[in-house]
Task: structure prediction
Amino acid sequence: MKMINVNTSSPYPVIVDSCLLKETGEYIRKYAPAAGKTAVITDDTVDGLYGDTVRESIRGAGLDVCTFVLPHGEASKNGENFLKILEFLAEEHFTRSDLIAALGGGVVGDLAGFAAAAYLRGIRFIQIPTTLLAQVDSSVGGKTAIDLPAGKNLAGAFYQPALVLCDIGTLDTLPAEIFTDGCAEVIKYGILGDKELFGHLKERGTGFDREYVVARCIEMKRDAVAEDEFDRGRRQILNLGHTLAHAAEKLSGYRLSHGRAVAMGMAEIARAAAADGTCSRECAAGIVDVLMQFDLPVRLEDPFEELYQWMLSDKKRHGDRINLIIPEEIGRCVIREYTLDKMESFIRCGMQYTKETGGRG
Ligand code: NAD
Ligand code: GLY
Result:
């Protein structure tokens, strides 16, 4: 068992262990004391797999529990479901001493977290992430959101949970494709700041030590979030490969998964960094090779001109400047500001960087 304390404006622990779900009630008693009722917000797939265990545990700790179930998938992360959850809480007579438990992947966590931030101007919530992506990224750090017809995550709030329970046993039931998606984010952490983690992933592939890897990624996220809770500076480092990834996701109409888009974005940025001499060819090739080892894609297929238009709406852009995260070596990245012209030529060069010159893929 590992416990990681996140020192944000309201601090909270993240517990990483297997078989945690059946202890949910006890953890709520300890870390969200005096909670009256708990609303478990989940999706239909996760409810079928883990809903009963979580509800039994909460009841076993002497707390009332009710459940709101969403259809699984990104399409549920919308304004309509957000309002339905608020109505549900009101009908169940939830007060500020009650609690929301977000049980599921990033979709459930983002939506339930935003509902918790908005209902009565804020009630406590806990995250119980059940995908690899949600465990190493979305459940920690307090970014909550819904998608608008105009784009992903366009409405939301920074709102920290009271507790995060990462039960790594839940990863056993993840379809391979969804597990692999989370692996892209895990590899990202290795590139960002931990050579040893990167080496472990290279050596073990998808058979990596889950407790060590999940906890290590959370520690790195904790550090970025503690330094910059509201995403104005250092936290942007977590966005390695994301400017290109978000553009590719948008161009695909969100048929391309986030993890796969991030893998392609990181590979292209690594090639660009090698092409302009910021990192070595070996470093770029090492990044691309590990992504390929995990069966992740490493080439963006869209025409650059189309990607570029969407890159301009990146949240890290301010006026005619944009911040990109650039690898210098495995385990060390920098946030570098570019004019839009410079960014265009930087990325273009990377995308032209061929096998012959050391780029892989
Ligand atoms: P998801 O929540 O849609 O889960 C993927 C699928 O896996 C769903 O169909 C779900 O039902 C299923 N599932 C979940 N747990 C399972 C389990 N243990 N066994 C079997 N099936 C299971 O997707 P995701 O990849 O977890 O999250 C993506 C979302 O996270 C996006 O909306 C993205 O914007 C958001 N996100 C948020 C942050 C943040 O900081 N808040 C960071 C990254 C991503
Ligand atoms: N997922 C990036 C962040 O939380 O800032």
Observations:
- DSSP finds 13 helices and twelve strands in the chain.
- The mean pLDDT is 94.
- Residues 43, 45-46, 49, 72-74, 77, 104-108, 110, 130-131, 133-134, 137-138, 141, 143, 152-153, 170, 173-174, 178, 181, 258 surround nicotinamide-adenine-dinucleotide (ligand 1) (CB under 6 Å).
- The CA atoms of residues 35 and 97 lie 6 Å apart.
